[in-house]
Amino acid sequence: MSGIVESAGTEAGGRPPAGQGGTVRRALLDAALEVFTERGYTDASLAEMAARSGIPVGSLFQHYGGKQGLYLALWEEFREEQERRTAATLASERGRGVDDPVVLFVAGARAYLGGAWDNRRLGRLFAEDDGPSGFDALRRQWDRAWVRRNARLLRVDERRRAGRVRVSVLTTVIGGAARELADCVDETEAREIVGEVCGILVHLSTPPG
């Protein structure tokens, strides 16, 4: 699998109106994403989000409590989708009998990077330094959990500092590539980035012998 598959509606910014099959929450989140990506978090206006979604500001507060709640809901959605995509890929690979930790790790990384491309508008948003108070700490917490999951996948002894450093470097490579994909506009180039990075990961994740 290439991991580079365009998700319908994600980059185009289109959404069904609230009265045509879209839920209130979906309409609010889609409007929030549009405004956040255009204005940044600090300058984003709740009134503009409400106007674009066609839903009253009061309903926005009822569902999300304000601008911070909308931003964090988008982050949670992005994070959960990346984890779901990666877990599904690993389950599929294991179902085919794949047991090599490096092969599994690279397959998971390819799935994650595919998600970074598919959801690049969200990726661009979260790569910015303009977010709600406490978001950086939340992101660092998730990054640490990500490193621990990768260590288990690669069967690295986390008690050894060298092993922890190796997994941290590998995870940083994936995160850096995801940020590049967030800024990418060409699918062919995105495929090249994913292929290049996966080749690097194969090399770096092989234990020294």
TrEMBL record:
Region described as Disordered: spans on this chain: 1-22
Keywords from the named record: DNA-binding, Transcription, Transcription regulation
Pfam families in alphabetical order: TetR_N
DNA-binding region listed in the record: 45-64
InterPro entries: Homeodomain-like_sf (IPR009057), HTH-type_TetR-like_transc_reg (IPR050109), HTH_TetR (IPR001647)
Sequence ranges assigned to domain HTH tetR-type in this UniProt record: 22-82
Top-level lineage group: Bacteria
Protein's name according to its UniProt entry: TetR/AcrR family transcriptional regulator
Organism (species): Streptomyces musisoli
